[in-house]
Write a structure and sequence with these properties.
The chain is of the alpha/beta class. It has helices at about 20-30, 70-75, 110-120, 125-150, 160-170, 175-185, 185-190, 210-220, 230-245, 285-295, 300, 335-345, 390-405, 410-415, 425-430, 475-490, and strands at about 10-15, 35-40, 50-55, 55-60, 90, 95-100, 105, 225, 245-250, 255-260, 265-270, 275, 280, 310-315, 325-330, 355, 370-380, 415-420, 460-465. The strands form five sheets. It has a seven-stranded mixed β-sheet. It has a five-stranded parallel β-sheet with strand order 9-2-1-13-19, covered by helices on one side. Strand 6 (about 95-100) and strand 7 (about 105) form a beta hairpin. Helix 4 packs antiparallel against helix 5.
C-alpha cells in the first residue's frame, strides 16, 4: 500500500489546469470529492496552451499525442467516453524523418509496414533488426509500465518485483544508444529510434535503455492528432470535469498557500479570495511550486539538474510543401555532437536537428482558407547556459529560418504572414524552472524512486502533479501523474 494524505479529503483544491491537474480532477470527482481548480490563464491546458492570432490557432506546447487510452481512462472515471469528447486522427506516417544525405524514412506503427519501408529505403537486414527491436521495446513496456511508471513509489524497495529482474535481464539498465545499436545498424534508424531520449533530458549515449519505452509509446503504439489541435485535449478534460461538478476559477492566480502544523489550510489568490481545502494538489512546475507557493525549497529539489530547453517558432504561412507529413524530423549529419553541445558544452547546435509539425496537414480549419501553420522546434540549452536570449532573439530567429530554407523549405521567409517565438526566457516567465519545458532531466538519480516524490515533504495533505514529479516528462507521463496524485488522496482508483 502506498502512502496517502492524512485527515479529511472532502474538498480538494487543484492549483493549475494543466493535463496533470485535469487528470486528477476527473478522478477525484468520480470518487465523490468536491473539487476546485484554480487556473491563472483564461483557458485550461497549462503547457498544452493555445494561441489564437490573425486567424490561426496555434498549439503552444506539446504537439505529439500518444497513448490516448490514458485520456479515455480519465474520462471513464466520470462515466464519459473518449469518442464523445475528442475526434482523434491516427497519423500516417507517424513521422517523416529527413537526413543530410537527401534520403527520408517514413515511420509507421504497424511493424510489417515499417519493415517494408526500412527494407526499401535501407536494407532487408535492417528490417529484420527492426523487427527484433520492436520485440525488445514491447517486452520493455510490459515489464516497466505497471511496476515502474503507473504506480506510486515511496521507496526504491518498492521496485523489488519480479519484473525488475526481467528488466535487468533484458538490458533495460544498460545505455540506450548501444542497446538500440544491437538491433539497428544504420545511423538513420538509430537516430529515429533514439532521439526521444532528448525529451527525457539526456543523450541517447547516457540515457538508460528503459527510455526506449518512449519510442514504444509513439513509434510502435501510434501517434494521433486531435481535431481542433492538441489544445482540444485539455478542453475535453476540463469540459467533462465541469459537467461532473468540478468548479473552475480561470484568470485567477494562487499567490500563496496558508498552512499550519504541517497541513495546508487554504490558498490565497490575486483576486483576494481565501479558498479553504482539505487536500491540495499543486500542478505548477515542482520547484516553482515549492519556492513560490510553499515558501521553501528542499535540498533535494535545489540539487536537480534540468533538461535542455527549446526555441519554438509558430508560423502562419501562405506556402505549402507537398513533401511534408504532419510531423517532420530533420536530422543533421552530427548526432553525438548535437547532444554534447546541448548538454555538456551548453552551446547552440552547430549542425541542428529540428522538428517541424504541420497541424494544417490534417486539420485545415486551424488556419485561414488556403493557408498553412508550422510549429518549428529547435533544441537549445536551458538557462544554466551563458546565453543572453534578449540579445540573441532576433539572430536566432534568422538562424532558424535560414536552417529551414537550407533543409528544403524554399521561400519560407517570404511566406510568413504571422509568427510567435518562444525562447528559454519566455518558458521561464511561464513558470518553468531554468526555462526548461521538459523539466528536470531523467538521469538515473532523477528517475523513478529518485525523482521528486509527489507527496510534499513536511506536509501531510499536499501532493504534486505534472512533469517535475513521478513518473516524469511527456503527455502520457503527466496524465499518469494526475492519477497518481488522486490516488494519494482517495486510494487506488479502478
Amino acid at each position: 500500500m502506498s502512502a496517502k494524505v492524512k485527515g479529511p479529503t472532502d474538498h480538494v483544491v487543484i492549483v493549475g489546469a494543466g493535463l496533470g491537474g485535469l487528470s486528477a480532477a476527473l478522478r477525484l470527482a468520480g470518487a465523490g470529492r468536491k473539487v476546485t481548480v484554480i487556473e491563472r490563464e483564461g483557458v485550461p491546458g497549462g503547457r498544452n496552451g493555445l494561441l489564437v492570432k490573425d486567424g490561426y490557432a496555434f498549439d503552444t506546447g506539446p504537439t505529439v499525442l500518444t497513448m490516448p487510452d490514458l485520456i479515455a481512462d480519465a474520462l471513464a472515471c466520470v462515466g464519459e467516453e473518449l469518442k464523445d469528447w475528442l475526434d482523434l486522427i491516427p497519423l500516417q506516417p507517424l513521422y517523416r524523418a529527413f537526413y543530410h544525405d537527401g534520403s527520408h524514412l517514413d515511420v509507421h506503427a504497424d511493424t510489417a509496414r515499417m519493415q517494408e519501408e526500412i527494407a526499401k529505403t535501407i536494407s532487408p537486414q535492417e528490417a529484420v533488426g527492426y523487427g527484433k527491436y520492436v520485440e525488445f521495446v514491447t517486452k520493455l513496456y510490459k515489464y516497466e509500465m505497471n511496476d515502474f511508471i503507473d504506480r506510486n513509489i515511496d521507496s526504491p524497495l518498492n521496485l523489488l518485483t519480479p519484473n525488475l529482474a526481467k528488466l535487468v535481464a533484458l538490458g533495460g539498465f544498460k545505455r540506450l544508444a548501444p542497446k538500440v545499436n544491437q538491433f539497428l545498424k544504420d545511423p538513420r534508424t538509430q537516430k529515429v529510434y533514439s532521439f526521444q531520449a532528448m525529451y527525457a533530458g539526456v543523450s541517447p549515449q547516457q540515457a538508460l535503455a528503459i527510455y526506449a519505452i518512449i519510442a514504444y509509446m509513439d513509434s510502435v503504439n501510434g501517434v494521433f492528432f486531435p481535431k481542433g489541435g492538441m489544445h482540444a485535449v485539455p478542453r475535453a478534460l476540463a469540459g467533462a470535469a465541469a459537467k461532473h461538478g468540478v468548479e473552475f476559477k480561470y484568470n485567477t492566480s494562487v499567490t500563496s498557500v496558508e498552512h499550519s502544523n504541517g497541513r495546508a489550510r487554504a490558498v490565497l489568490t490575486d483576486t483576494g479570495e481565501r479558498i479553504e481545502c482539505d487536500a491540495l494538489i499543486l500542478n505548477p512546475d515542482l520547484p516553482v511550486a515549492w519556492r513560490e507557493l510553499l515558501g521553501r525549497t528542499p535540498p533535494s529539489v535545489k540539487r536537480l539538474k534540468y533538461s535542455p530547453s527549446c526555441v519554438t517558432l509558430l508560423v502562419g504561412s501562405n506556402k505549402k510543401y507537398d513533401r511534408l507529413a504532419h510531423h517532420n524530423i530533420h536530422f543533421g549529419e552530427s548526432w553525438d555532437g548535437v547532444f554534447d553541445e546541448l548538454i555538456d558544452k551548453q552551446t547552440i547546435m552547430s549542425d541542428p536537428s529540428l522538428l517541424v509539425t504541420v497541424p494544417t496537414h490534417d486539420d485545415p480549419e486551424l488556419a485561414p482558407a488556403g493557408k498553412s501553420s508550422y510549429y518549428i522546434l529547435f533544441p537549445v540549452p536551458n538557462l544554466d547556459a551563458d546565453i543572453d536570449w534578449n540579445a540573441k532573439r532576433e539572430s536566432f530567429r534568422e538562424h532558424m529560418i535560414s536552417t529551414m530554407e537550407s533543409r528544403g523549405y524554399e521561400g519560407f521567409s517570404d511566406s510568413i504572414e504571422t509568427e510567435s517565438m518562444t525562447t528559454p526566457l519566455d518558458w521561464q516567465a511561464q513558470g518553468m524552472e531554468r526555462g526548461a519545458p521538459f523539466a528536470s532531466a531523467h538521469t538515473f538519480f532523477q528517475t523513478g524512486p529518485f525523482r521528486p516524490r509527489n507527496m510534499a515533504e513536511g506536509f501531510e495533505n499536499v501532493v504534486f502533479a505534472g512533469s517535475g514529479t513521478q513518473p516524469g516528462v511527456g503527455v502520457p507521463m503527466v496524465l499518469i501523474s494526475g492519477r497518481l496524485a488522486a490516488e494519494r488522496i482517495v486510494g487506488a482508483i479502478k
